[in-house]
Amino acid sequence: MNLETYSDILKSLVHQISICCVKNTPYYHLTTEIIQMIESYLDDSVFFYKNKDIVNYYASLAYAHGWICAGSYLGLYSIPFFPISWRNIEFPKEYDKTHLNEKTERYISMLSCAIPSVSNCLMIGSPLSKASDHCLYIAKLNLEKGEFLYKQDSNIPALGYLCYGYGWLDTAVRSGLLHVIQRPDLFTTEC
């Protein structure tokens, strides 16, 4: 799948979001914040695309995708199911391979530091505590996949996994499921 198709699919998913929360409730406000974050990252991707920055274009899309899936998992809204394999993403023939390598290394470092910088702040056994644990699991799993693929010199799928996992982690922090205990600079939310 080329990046333009991936972008079109994500934009279509956002337009199909059906909010599940009652208006004017805290969960409704959280949902609208998450949708605004998704839209911001998709807007960033357009900026990067126009400036021929393929690496950041892709990173913004995968990051937005993580937010989309995490919000759906939390039951804040429903979206059509859209599985993806970052191994199937196709970059154009001309792109900055050095930038891709640097960005992938940076995301491995950032996500490796971000994961131990949060803790589940909810009562053990509550459904939200389980959701917190799941979001953290998804971030860790995608870090592992990203690191493995990076070591195999497969930086395109590696960066996709890393950005997607980071999107899940940031969504959990924004949702109040995870508490930032150190390194607030690694998160896109006010701590």
From TrEMBL:
Record domain DUF357: where: 6-76, 106-178
Lineage: superkingdom: Archaea
Protein name: DUF357 domain-containing protein
Organism listed in the record: Methanospirillum hungatei
Lineage: Archaea, Methanobacteriati, Methanobacteriota, Stenosarchaea group, Methanomicrobia
